[in-house]
Design a protein that fits this description.
The complex is a heterodimer of chains A (about 250) and B (about 300). Chain A has about 250 residues and is an all-alpha fold. Chain A contains 11 helices and no strands. The chains are: A mainly alpha (about 250), B alpha/beta (about 300). Chains A and B meet through helix 1 and helix 5 of A and helix 2 and helix 3 of B.
């Protein structure tokens, strides 16, 4: 087995992932752009750099939209790839060739993640450049951790089921609800370890918010989220390697 | 090259009840052979092919290609594979689809364009090269499927219902292409409903039904054997002499039909011709494969 065919295929994978990244980017632009436009409409935007009220409002809009857009974007970007290939039988074309499916999807994950970060980095970068100070690196960091955890969860869901999107949404909602109840001490004692042992979605959301807003965060939370995400990714790839590619 | 030893595969329904798709399949395919797989719908052909590609794992028996697991073989050497249905992402453009699959097939960058041009010419899709796949007819899509399978030289070729959707001209052309693919080092497997096609192309045909291989017919050997079979003879004039010399012969419309071995047939024909019978054509009433298929497959 050689990696040469897979590396040669990289430009096509990158193109596909870039196209995939446009939808979440559009969501971020629309959801954040409309209130920003409504707020700035009729105001002198040239003065934004010298107008702290305007600047703070734009920043607040960005921060409130970014966390939601990051999570939603990671969902849209990562879901329905492995399962879609299987459902639509594309796997028959890809994996009758000299291609290891694990390498194929790992390469797509990495390429996709880098492209997603580059695409999503444009928004805070443009706001920083043309409007007001936002935490560009923190925003990119928030994108990255969301992608790792949600991406890892997606790959595992896709390896286990034929409907990774549905599995992802269900697990995300259930886990986040449990973990929010846990932070409010509303869970029965016996469920506390369960909530803590599940993928740290609530921690990811808090960490993501802190990164976007430039606040301090616990390094242990970062390690927990990234480590869990990578663990899920590896588990997903192992399951994929051991299970059937068509069902 | 390919060894299947009591291979089985059982699926589970959503309620957990087992559905046996393939059971106790034993088959060997050597390099240089063209082997057909014939069977009715739901016989297990697709499951068998998915296992040969390593996309499914058997849950019983052993299976190897060149001593490797099918998945290991595909990842090491690649398989030229034409699936029954062209399930490409339909937003792909024809030439770009072939170019990307050539890259994924390991064709070096410098040779990729030439490989694509070669297969486009071979399957006659030049006028469709810039079209999106969703704009192609079923037959043209099938030709693109054939083209992608021919992008790289492979020791194992698997065609699943290869002439599905092709018009008669391209069905004939496909046979020429397959004939040209024969190599001493290559094994070719063709799964098809079309027995005539299998009989023309294959050395042996495995007839599969209800997950079992019911019979393996050696097509080349069976043609011209001494066993009696049914013949259809078209006669221009004096059919009575033919009926007289071929025991059991009857008129069926414009044809005379009889059951005889090759020697008895020739003797009867010679005697009838000597009495003035003019023969237009002699052909088996049904092919040996068709006969074998009928007797092997349970009608449902």
């Amino acid at each position: 087995m050689t990696l040469r065919p897979l590396l040669a295929y990289l430009p096509w994978q990158a193109r596909e992932m870039a196209v995939r990244g446009l939808a979440p980017l559009a969501i971020l632009l629309v959801v954040g752009g409309i209130p920003t436009y409504a707020f700035l409409n009729g105001q002198d935007v040239v003065d934004l750099a010298n107008n702290s009220t305007q600047a703070d409002t734009v920043k607040a809009i960005y921060q409130s939209v970014a966390s939601l857009a990051i999570t939603l974007g990671a969902f849209l970007f990562m879901s329905s790839s492995v399962a879609l290939d299987r459902d639509k039988q594309h796997v028959r074309f890809f994996f009758s060739r000299q291609v290891n499916p694990v390498n194929y999807y790992l390469q797509r994950f990495v390429v996709g993640m880098l492209l997603f970060l580059a695409l999503f980095g444009i928004v805070p970068g443009a706001i920083e450049l043309f409007m007001t100070d936002v935490n560009v690196l923190g925003s990119i960091g928030a994108f990255a951790i969301s992608l790792v955890l949600i991406g890892g969860l997606t790959v595992l869901a896709a390896a286990l089921t034929n409907r990774d999107g549905l599995a992802l949404i269900l697990s995300f909602v259930i886990i986040r609800t449990l973990q929010q109840l846990s932070t409010q001490d509303l869970l029965p004692d016996w469920m506390e370890p369960v909530a803590r042992g599940l993928p740290p979605i609530e921690t990811m959301a808090q960490l993501s918010k802190a990164l976007v807003e430039g606040n301090t965060f616990q390094t242990t939370d970062l390690i927990h989220v990234v480590g869990y995400g990578l663990g899920l990714l590896v588990a997903g790839l192992i399951v994929m390697r051991r299970s059937a590619l068509v069902r | 090259m390919i060894v299947l030893n009591n291979v089985g595969k059982t699926y589970r329904t959503i309620f957990g009840s087992p559905v046996r798709a393939v059971s106790d399949v034993t088959l060997e395919v050597t390099r240089g052979e063209v082997v057909g797989i014939a069977g009715p719908n739901g016989a297990g052909k697709s499951t068998l092919i998915a296992m040969l590609l390593g996309l499914l794992t058997p849950d019983a028996g052993e299976m190897s290609i060149d001593g490797l697991s099918p998945r290991g073989f595909a990842e090491r050497s690649g398989v030229a594979y034409l699936p029954e249905l062209m399930t490409f992402p339909l937003e792909w453009r024809t030439d770009d689809a072939l170019l990307r699959l050539a890259a994924l097939s390991g064709v070096p960058a410098a040779e990729r364009r030439a490989a694509v041009e070669r297969v486009i010419e071979a399957v006659g899709i030049d006028e469709h090269r810039k079209k999106k796949l969703k704009a192609l007819s079923k037959g043209n899509l099938q030709r693109v499927g054939l083209a992608q399978a021919l992008l790289a030289e492979r020791d194992l070729v698997i065609f699943d219902e290869p002439t599905h959707g092709l018009d008669p001209v391209w069905t004939a052309r496909f046979r020429d292409i397959v004939a040209g693919l024969r190599r001493p080092e290559r094994a070719i497997i063709i799964a098809s409903h079309n027995l005539d096609e299998l009989e023309r192309l294959c050395d042996r045909v495995a007839i599969i039904d209800r997950g079992h291989i019911q019979r393996i017919v050696s097509v080349r050997e069976s043609a011209g054997q001494g066993t009696a079979r049914r013949w259809r003879i078209r006669v221009a004039q004096v059919p009575d002499a033919l009926i007289e010399h071929l025991p059991g012969a009857t008129m069926n419309g414009p044809d005379v039909e009889c059951t005889a071995d090759v020697a008895a047939l020739n003797a009867g024909l010679a005697a009838a011709i000597a009495q003035g019978t003019l023969i237009v054509a002699v052909a088996p009433a049904e092919s040996s494969l068709e006969e074998a298929f009928r007797s092997a497959v349970t009608l449902r």
